[in-house]
Amino acid sequence: xRVASYNIHRAxxxxxxxxxxxxxxxxxxxxxxxMGLQEVDWHDEPGGHHAQFEYLAGLPGYEAVVGPNLRDHRxxxxxxxxxxxxxxxxxxxxxxxxxxxPRGAVDVDLAVGNDDLRVIxxxxxxxxxxxWRQARQLRRLLQQPPDRPTVLLxxxxxxxxxxxxVRPLLAQCAPCRHPRTFPSxxxxxxxxxxxxxxLRAAGPPAAxxxxxxxxxxxxxxxxxxxxxxx
Length: 230
Fold this sequence. Notes:
By secondary structure, the protein is an alpha+beta fold. The protein contains five helices and eleven strands, in the order βαβαβββββαβαββαβ.
């Protein structure tokens, strides 16, 4: 199965144009069975355009699971899971840190093959101390129960050597090389991650570097091919 993580930047591209059709085109290029998206808008846009969620959730062949982090007069904003596999259970976790932008994780059980697969989609904060706390929260989630096949898809926002702020989380996942995904035109930082636990990968995650992906968002998507749970 193929999984992907993609911060769509509210569908605002590197040309400063908001165009959800380009995001849909990139998702079509990925051909992923499971996609975790960050920075998705749930409110109607200026000019009479419908909320991005309506377009993305209507992608043929996928079921959508929402995980909004920010709720105000404009609507909702946050994470979205798109999956080709049946959804068995959904949980939402609050990862917010006092005085910072609200953050969260959507935590889903999928029926994959003869087993369940747990998928978590998240977007961590910009402050190192905030991320450290969020990484510890996610570590506790991964430990309950232990050794369960799990994929975490997210923008972890840690670009420092050794990933100091998210080390508690990385310690619970299979080691792998993380590709550079930001900024999309000339990637320098490995912000977007695919982390696994109790799963075998066909190879390391890779950044999707198509011409459309370089302009559709300020992040590149990251993809990985995984073996189905035994």
